[in-house]
């Protein structure tokens, strides 16, 4: 089946080329403002999308070809280099690679993005290639080419960007290798002595090492440069200590403090406060605790400001026990200096909004000056605590303290109220808060965590057109600011767009962002796509379009998920699409992604359900050529069932004899399928009787499913008397009495109306109660006569 998703979209994803809709005015888009109209919404309010089907042979317009997204700057030539090195073909020219390497960092100096493992690998390979070429073929390309990469300015910019960019954990090792190579070239190969590297480059390099798990290496370099660095402000030691704190290395922290004491610098209260607050602001609570507990020079106590900061952070991180001694030490300070954190402490110990209001009245009655110290930050702390513990009702109650105390909500309070409404899933309240926040301009929505949570909530209601418009207008500035969106947020947006039947918009959303997520993030997004494809309430064409996107955007999708997708198309009676999914698995080179025995078995089971003889032959031939899959009884069971369903009982009987001669032998699923084959086989009656006789002679228990299958085989062969006798003897043969399902299956198996009438007349006389149950079930007309609906003897292959 030809996908309804534009081939232009698929080609763009495959080639990693930019893409935007040329015809739809309102489209979810990743394209930066410079490349699109300023008044274009990011999400369309229309469910029906207009799509352009461009022939693959027609080139894109020059204007569209020339657009390069900021996230993709420089990537294509570096990707071509890796491909050419792998294929041992001609590599891209030096000037092209040098420009690509430079463009990558110039773009990210202006707008930082996430560094992925794939990007880090491209950069380190390109750097080493250019470095080797610079050493061996400097004159060949000319000095101007190498200045693009190896000038002091370019090298320093690389270190600056690497120190500022967010690096995924899986990309960290290669990113550090690149930074070391650049710093080494800057300090040695460029003619500088080690002590004359530019100060910003030194700071950037040490910060990069320290914040990426290598504080020991940063410590080493700081010792080398200490003669120059001892006068720097802020002290570079804070960076080193921050790195050790993030590794919870208390021994090294104490050694550094002792070393600073010997050097006459010390670890004063100001540095202690600055470093602790820095770690709190970065959300690294354990590291902040580690630094706070470090001794301060001259046995000084921590400042009041840092005490209040760690108490608040401890409350928000549910670490009250640790903060209790610190809070008790505040008793030496007057209440007018600690009232805000004292109110927060009361809330953390279970006090409600009314309790806190009463407490304030008591304090003010004792000291009227405290009334002037009640500020919005006091209320904000309380709402922030309620949000931290996920109690939206408590947050709403705390927010009512502001008007009670005569306080006007500021932007921070509006944001906290919005977060509380997001936690509660209060769509109406959240939209109202968003309107209030619009008064503060674009600066209102800078909190990445809140924005991501808000988008996720809005997307959960996004199938409604009016909410969809709200999502559209809100996302426009979010995308323009290049705010980092979480994988769960992207997954929510993908789900919303899929259920609005806009797969092309999903592709435009994913293309520039998928590379910035680690495997776990990609898994979240992939899960949404797979769930949509398997949703039987969705139109088959939309499900197939979504599968086409999954196939290209998520090549790592495993066999199990692909098998489930294949099965879902079989259940939709689209054997052609299911077998295409199977064929895609067969095309993989990696063994882990190729069909397993279970995949073949389920494929044959699906083909049996749809009686697809054409694809049965195709898949069977694939099985014959697949040397990695050993035939087992489960596969052969499915193959036998498929051939029987496709009216090839002789072939099915051959497979049954193959099972009998195999080392594994038949399973209990094999026998019901065998009797199913007997229903159509020219000698089916004799084969069925022989098998049942053998089972009795071997004293093997014939379970209800097997015995009922035997009755069906007799009925299908019009051996009514034998089948009726088998039903009458069922209790004595297998110890189980016949049920209405037994009679119904017998009736369904018998061909032609006049024989069915005989079965009905017999059942009414012999089993009137069972037949009364069947009469309440709908009968549907088929070519071979009426059948009871919903009665089946299912076979699990």
Question: Could you please describe the fold and organization of this structure?
Answer:
It is a single chain. With 797 residues, the protein is an all-alpha fold. Among the domains are: 68-192; 225-331. The protein contains 45 helices and 4 strands. Strands 1-2 form a two-stranded parallel sheet. Strands 3-4 form a two-stranded antiparallel ribbon. Strand 3 (779-782) and strand 4 form a beta hairpin. Helix 44 (753-766) crosses helix 45. The longest helix is centred in the N-terminal third of the chain and has 20 residues, at 117-136. It is extended and about 105 Å long. Residues 1-67 have low confidence and may be disordered.
Number of helical elements: 45
Number of DSSP E strands: 4
Global morphology: extended
Tell me the radius of gyration.
36 Å
GO molecular function: mRNA binding
GO cellular component, one term: mitochondrion
How are the secondary structure elements laid out?
Elements: H1 7-15, H2 62-65, H3 75-87, H4 94-110, E1 114-115, H5 117-136, H6 138-141, H7 143-150, H8 152-164, E2 166-167, H9 172-189, H10 199-211, H11 215-224, H12 226-229, H13 237-246, H14 250-262, H15 269-281, H16 285-292, H17 304-316, H18 320-328, H19 335-348, H20 353-366, H21 376-388, H22 392-399, H23 401-404, H24 411-424, H25 427-437, H26 448-460, H27 465-480, H28 487-498, H29 503-510, H30 519-533, H31 540-553, H32 559-571, H33 575-586, H34 597-610, H35 613-625, H36 633-645, H37 649-661, H38 670-678, H39 684-697, H40 704-716, H41 720-728, H42 730-734, H43 740-749, H44 753-766, H45 768-775, E3 779-782, E4 785-788
Helix pairs in contact: 3-4, 3-5, 4-5, 4-7, 4-8, 5-9, 7-8, 8-9, 8-10, 9-10, 10-11, 10-13, 11-13, 13-14, 13-16, 15-16, 15-17, 16-17, 17-18, 17-19, 19-21, 21-22, 21-24, 22-24, 24-25, 24-26, 26-27, 26-28, 28-29, 28-30, 30-31, 32-33, 32-34, 33-34, 34-35, 34-36, 36-37, 36-38, 37-38, 38-39, ...
